[in-house]
UniProtKB/TrEMBL annotation:
Keywords: ATP synthesis, Cell membrane, CF(1), Hydrogen ion transport, Ion transport, Membrane, Transport. This is ATP synthase subunit delta. It comes from the Bacteria. The keyword Lipoprotein does not apply. Gene3D superfamilies: N-terminal domain of the delta subunit of the F1F0-ATP synthase (1.10.520.20). Belongs to the ATPase delta chain family. It holds the Pfam family OSCP. It is found in: Cell membrane; Membrane. This protein is part of the stalk that links CF(0) to CF(1). It either transmits conformational changes from CF(0) to CF(1) or is implicated in proton conduction. F(1)F(0) ATP synthase produces ATP from ADP in the presence of a proton or sodium gradient. F-type ATPases consist of two structural domains, F(1) containing the extramembraneous catalytic core and F(0) containing the membrane proton channel, linked together by a central stalk and a peripheral stalk. During catalysis, ATP synthesis in the catalytic domain of F(1) is coupled via a rotary mechanism of the central stalk subunits to proton translocation. It is a peripheral membrane protein. The gene is atpH.
Amino acid sequence: MSSSAVAKRYALALFEISKENKQIETVEAELRVIKKVFLDNKELGVLLETPRLTIQKKKAILKDAFANVSLPVLNTILLLTDRHRGDQIVGVVDAFIELANEEHGIADATVYSVRSLTDDEKNAVSASFSKRVGKKSLRITNVRDEDLLGGLKVHIGNRIFDGSLKGKLNRLERELVR
């Protein structure tokens, strides 16, 4: 079974439990923190993969590190560790977030702009682009990219909407070269 299929299966189980307990938002927030911890501390992932430590010691480390998370989240992480799938934790988080976004009609978007966007501008971008991708709203992450010269570049899933001045100049150059 592929890694992503494994992650999706665990995420789906955790999602169903969270939905039953009406804790989707809480679990999602906890999982985002866990993902950040794993991405910021690569040593933690290496530690879970090392054969030098027993599974009990690995689980004790995880229990200490994530003592404040809800029981379903902690149990999922411990189960992944038991089954030697600690490398799947970040994948489970990503799959869970996808399921939660689908449930709420939200999409994650990365918006590249020359300067930081205000809340009103983020809301306007969300209102405009959410309709294009068939969602209620967008959860926007704004990234400053001074190479754009002006305008916006919006990434939503595997779709890119390039309304930047740099993108327009590149398209114009390709047309003129033909």
